[in-house]
Amino acid sequence: MSGGRYAAPPPVIEPWEGLLLVDKPAGMTSHDVVDAIRRRFGFRKVGHGGTLDPMATGLLVILLGRGTKLSDRVMASDKTYEGTLKLGATTDTEDVDGQILAEAPWEHVTREAVEREMAARVGDLMQTPPMVSAVKKQGVPLYKLARKGQTVEREPRLIHVYEFRLLAFEPPRARFVLRCTKGTYVRTLCADIGRALGCGAFLEALRRTRAGALAVEAAAPLDDILRMDVDRVAERVLPLHGFLAGGSPG
Question: Over the stretch 68-95, which tens digit does the pLDDT of each residue have?
């Protein structure tokens, strides 16, 4: 074009770039999942849209290629979980992976008491992150300080619980569903309930079922994904325009 500039061609977006929904197994960190996918397929850019603790299973949103630019947006979405709280003990991590710190009788706890404590935590809450967490203090993750036996002051954070409902009560276990904002520590909610009931409690099992409009039913187990080829993975990826338009994978 005389006297002007040619417009740069639009970037080529590969069919595998976007959001890949993984059903995370227990025993792996979210970084472990990212690393396994990167090594298996040779993708240069791989991230995730919100950490799951190693003991947790369920929906982990993996971001591929230009999909990594959507990290903040995916992380900001509300989350839904199903979990199991176990009465009668406290642990140093507030979940089943920790060391037991104390035990106490739980037989006096009723279904009504558990439901009352769950209902009391619906709404806005100020929650102090646990020491065993990825929250940073002066640039250092709290869990690294905790490994050294250090406990430091943590700033409470505002969270919102939309729903905290008992699904089944089979003492000493209580199965529940929780809908909440990002950054909510489910294990801390369980530990708080245990303290309120006077017997202690910890999170025994947790499964993320939704992140915003994305559901675990649309996810594939990690082992299945790692057996796929790149073309098959691409068929499972929610493209960027589909996510931004509010779609979900088929």
Answer: 998 999 999 999 999 999 999 999 999 9
**Is residue 239 in a domain?**
yes
* Helices (H), ranges, 51-185: 71-75, 111-119, 142-147
Give domain status of residue 61, yes or no: yes
Residues of the chain with pLDDT under 70: 1-13, 138, 140, 142-143, 145-146, 242-250
The catalytic position among 23, 32, 35, 53 is 53
The beta strands (E) that lie in the chain are given as 18-24, 46-48, 57-64, 79-87, 89-91, 100-103, 123-127, 136-137, 140-141, 157-170, 173-180, 201-211, 214-215, 220-221
Paired tokens of 148: 């050294």
* Helices within the chain (DSSP H only): 30-41, 71-75, 111-119, 142-147, 186-197, 222-226, 230-236, 240-244
Q: Are residues 151 and 234 in the same domain?
A: no
Q: Which amino acid is at 231?
A: D
Q: Based on the fold, state whether residues 52 and 68 are members of the same structural domain.
A: yes
Q: 53 an active-site residue?
A: yes
| pLDDT one-digit tens code per residue, 130-168 | 877 777 776 767 667 667 777 777 889 999 999 999 999
